[in-house]
Amino acid sequence: MMVTPNKKQPSEKTSNLFTEECDETVESIQEQLSRHCTWPWTDFFDSKMVFQTSLPAPLGPFQVGYLDLMTPGLPQDSSLLRIYYPAPSNTSITSPPLWADKECRAGMLRFIQSAAWDWPTWVNNSEFNPLFAAKKILLSPAGFLTGFSLGWPLIGTVRTIPIARAAPLAPHVGSGWPVVVFSHGMGCNRFNMSQLCYQLASQGVMVVAVEHREGSGFGTFYMNGDTVENIPYLQVPVDENEYRVRNKQINHRCEEVLRAIDLLVKMNAGEAITNVIDKKDNLTISKSSMAMTILKSSMALTILKSSMDLTNHLYLAGHSFGGSTVLLASSLDTKVKAVFAMDPWMYPLAEQKFEIAKPTLVVNTDIFVNPNNLKVINEASNNNSDVTFEVLEGGVHLSPTDLPMAFPTVLRKALGMKGKVDAEVTMVNINKIVWQWLKNLIS
Length: 443
Fold this sequence. Notes:
By secondary structure, the chain is of the alpha/beta class. It has helices spanning 23-34, 102-117, 129-138, 141-155, 194-201, 242-268, 287-299, 321-330, 371-380, 409-412, 423-442; strands spanning 53-54, 63-70, 80-87, 159-160, 164-165, 179-183, 206-210, 219-224, 227-232, 314-319, 336-342, 360-365, 387-392. 45% of the residues are buried.
């Protein structure tokens, strides 16, 4: 059962949310993982010769399909999304996407290096003490990056995501599937929190993960005509300009969430959307072949026509920087019905006036509870009686991400990826919390 503390008063005692219910599910997940092998060597890390380990299978009644969408234009007026959706239960997962290829891993390591030297304000760091110990041992940013770059292929695991690209869409009942637009945190992208997204989709929900392109992710890109323009992580020094930069970022992120909603409305209405997501991997083909590639990617989106209930069941969810992003965006679109924020990092909104006016659930891991973050939420929701706080026992800030699954259990705590409860257990708990939150809203 979920425990609901009084509004504006996060429970001092952590709530052991759903742990007693998840043992059987966790055993099932661990059994799945034990059937696969890992291959530790760098040379073959992304090869089809490698034994790849899938993330846990979807637990709902549906399999999960996905489509990636990039609209043309500069980052300030275009979108990059991953759309997870319910697929028929007999859908085969034959070519699952990698969770992180070599380019993604390099970007994540650069982000970790940057964060170690410029730790963001209002982010508790006690769970990351080994990271700072490594910083002292490796001395310089370059040495830090080299050490971690050599270490990941040796101890990490090659993960795939158990979803099928362009799978058939399962028939919906009523006015359409409920929709959750999801905003990731700093150092992530549209698939770093895939478990949360595809597990929710397997229950019968359309989940739209925004990839933010203002410099807070570990690295992303956009298409400038036929040229790939990369957007690396923006290292933000902790100085007098930190707030100005972070505030600019969160407002950019907010606009990306609102643009995603606008795109969903258009797709639901059957309007044509140009999708250039496949241009990056096909730059050497002829113009006519490129045109056909773009047309094929764009036509794939037509399966979403009339599939979403955006009138009655549109919700926002986010983690960390994404948590604060959806809290800001929720008051700017009347179609949004409620908000779920995990470990929201509120520093980027510390001096900006905004209002939290929608029903809101805030879930913090126990170590991430920070009075500064809570103060901003309290002030913004001063006229809202429907704000609930929960504390998740035993988790850490990275628990809602897929990152802990990329490393052996024995190393997770040393890397700040495990609290008192195993990552698999915590992930099951989080998915149960999110699904219960949504069930209460749509029932």
